[in-house]
Amino acid sequence: MDAPNVVDIFAGCGGFGFGFAERGFRIGHAVESFRTSLETYVANVPVGEPHLGDVRTQEYAKMGRPDVLIGGPPCEAFTVANADRRRNPLDRLYTDPVGSLTLQYAKVVKELQPRVFVMENVPPIMEGPLEAELRTIFARQGYPSIHFNRLQAEDHGTPSHRDRVFISNVVISPPKVARRVTVEEAIADLQSLDVEIPNHEEVPMRGKRGQRMREMEEGDSLYRYRAADGRMHGAFTRLKADELAPTVKGLGRFIHPVEDRLLTAREHARLMGYPDDFVFHGSKNEQMNMIGESVPPPLSLAIAGEVRKALDMRG
Question: Residue 285, Cβ neighbours under 10 Å: how many?
C-alpha cells in the first residue's frame, strides 16, 4: 500500500504529523487554530492543504475519506495538573468548553469515516465513567470496537517521561527501545549557548528567582503546587543529568542540570526527541508551549509504524 492519506486535526506544531510523514504517509490536510503552530507545521512537515481555523468549522466533506485521522484535542479539562478541573468526570467531557472538543473529534471521525483513527490525550480521560462513555460515543460514530493504548514516550526513545493514551480502532503496541535516553545524553552538546543551532537562545531568569536558582541542587524545584490529584508537583525544576527529564509541559520550564540557567527551547525540543532541523516559529514562550503540548516525534514514529502494519493487514 503506497502513501496512505492522513488528516491531522488539532494538529499543533506537527509532532504527531511528523512521525507519519517520516513513515511514508501523506498528510493531505492539517487543521490548527493557532497561526504560529500551523506556520511551524508547514515549515517542517509536508502537508497538502493546511487549514488555519477552528476544527468545528471545517468543510470535511471536501477532504474525502482518509486512510488515517490523527489528532490530540486539548487535555486541560482532564489532566490532574489542572487543579481547577471539574469534579464530575462527565462534566469534564460535556460541560467544560475545552473538554467538549473531544466530542468534536468524535464528530469528525463520524464525518470522515477513516480506516484508522488515533486520538491522543492524557490517561485521566479514562477516569471513572469516562472510558465507558467514550466507547459508547465512538460506537455511535460507527466504530464499535476501540482500544485505549497507553504508551510511555520514554519507552520509545524520548528523553523525557510522558504518559499518554492513544484511543484508536486498532491496537497500537510498538516495541520498546532497549534503553532509555538521559538528559545528559540528550543535551550535553548544547551546554554552551554559543552553539549555532535554531531556537537555542538564552531564557533569562534574574533577580531573586535567579539567586534561588543558583542555590538549587539537581531535582530541586523553585516552586511547588498541589494538583487535582492532591499531590505536590514541581515547577522550574533543576534536571538530573543521569535520569530522564520529567514531563515537558506547555507552561513548564526546566533549569539546566549543570549551568545556572533555564533550558532553551531547543533543549526542550531535544528532551521531546525533535531533530535539530525542526525549527519552531514565534516567541520563546510560544516555542516552549508548542513543544510541551505536542506528541514527541519518537513516539509518533512508533505509532505510525503500528498504524501502517494495521493498514497493510486490512489490505
Answer: 13
Tell which residue, 42, 6, 1, 2, has the closest CA to residue 304.
6
149, 147, 21, 77: CA torsion to nearest 10 = -70
Once rounded to an integer, what is the mean pLDDT over residues 34-40? 98
Domain boundaries of the chain, sorted by first residue? 5-176+294-314, 183-277
* Residue 237 phi, psi dihedral angles, 5° rounding: -95, 135
What CA–CA distance (Å, rounded) separates 285 from 282? 8
Rounded Cα–Cα distance for residues 294 and 259 (Å): 26
CATH superfamily of 5-176+294-314: Vaccinia Virus protein VP39 (3.40.50.150)
pTM above 0.70, yes or no: yes
Is 13 catalytic? The answer is no
Quickly state the pLDDT bin for 1 (edges 50, 70, 90): low
The architecture (CATH level 2) of 183-277 comes to: Alpha-Beta Complex (3.90)
Half-sphere exposure of 262 (CA within 13 A, CB side): 20
Q: What is the mean pLDDT of the chain?
A: 95
- Residues 80, 247: Cα–Cα separation, whole Å: 13
Separation CA 182–CA 278 (nearest Å):
21
Residue 153, Cβ density class (10 Å: 0-12 exposed, 13-18 middle, ≥19 buried): buried
Retrieve residue 248's grid coordinates: 515537558
Given the residues 11, 68, 75, 112, select the one marked as catalytic: 75
Q: State how beta strands 254-255 and 232-238 pair.
A: parallel
Cell numbers 541542587 label which residue?
A: 217
C-alpha cell at 161: 517521561
Q: What is the per-residue burial (b if ≥16 Cβ within 10 Å, else e) of 37-64?
A: bbbbbbebbebeebbeeebeebebeebe
CA–CA gap between residue 172 and residue 191 (Å, rounded): 36
